[in-house]
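In the design runs reported in the main text, the only information available to the sequence generator was the tokenized backbone. The following block is the verbatim input for one such run; it is reproduced so that readers can re-run the procedure and compare outputs position by position.
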């Protein structure tokens, strides 16, 4: 579990699933999060997927629940590990819109990149974001990510094309400090 000043990152639990299912069915959240067009998801399907994965045992990988004051507000992850280049991709969704724009996203991102550089010895964390997702871009910039390129008309979202922005943070530019003194994995 990773402990920040206000944000805790921990494993996603089965009792998070009803709220996660609400987030996954919120079109505004899905559009902001990018990726595929919004599609409905039943709680039964989400629980079946969780149970199937949990049934395999082992560890949970590098996906985390984002928790504020004991409330599950979203999830974030490092994925697409490239062991030779030592880079991973970052994804984050705060699914409860009431928690947007209050600095929780950047704290979660800082915790996650700190985890990646400190514990996985990564050299780079990178991400993709839609150009019109200004809130996300500002939060990523605040964490040290810089824009590395734009793919034109690369995304179809909410009825129009958008640019896909690539952002990256190098280990040499990483500033630690988000993790509290007792921050542990
Ligand atoms: C993107 C996300 C993780 C950011 O987390 P957050 O806690 O909302 O963001 P923060 O409060 O840390 O920072 C938000 C920044 O955007 C600004 N902002 C807030 N509302 C905004 C809005 N409607 N439009 C533009 N900028 C906005 C804030 O002022 C702040 O920038 P600043 O510090 O330069 O002033 C979160 O909003 C989220 O999960 N959104 C839905 C899914 C998503 O977009 N995922 C990212 C996909 S790449």
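Verbatim output:
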């Amino acid at each position: 579990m990773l402990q920040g000043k206000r944000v805790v990152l921990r494993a996603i639990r089965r009792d998070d699933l009803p709220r996660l299912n609400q987030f996954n069915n919120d079109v505004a959240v899905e559009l902001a999060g990018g990726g595929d067009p919004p599609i409905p998801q039943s709680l039964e399907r989400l629980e079946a997927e969780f149970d199937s994965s949990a049934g395999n045992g082992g560890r949970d990988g590098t996906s985390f629940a984002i928790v504020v004051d004991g409330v599950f507000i979203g999830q974030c992850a490092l994925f697409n590990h490239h062991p030779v280049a030592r880079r991973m991709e970052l994804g984050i969704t705060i699914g409860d819109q009431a928690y947007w724009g209050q600095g929780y996203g950047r704290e979660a991102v800082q915790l996650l990149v700190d985890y990646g550089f400190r514990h996985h010895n990564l050299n780079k964390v990178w991400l993709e974001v839609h150009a019109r997702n200004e809130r996300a871009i500002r939060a990523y910039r605040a964490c040290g990510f810089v824009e590395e390129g734009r793919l034109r008309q690369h995304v179809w979202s909410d009825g129009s094309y958008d640019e896909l922005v690539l952002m990256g943070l190098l280990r040499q530019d990483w500033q630690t400090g988000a993790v509290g003194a007792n921050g542990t994995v």
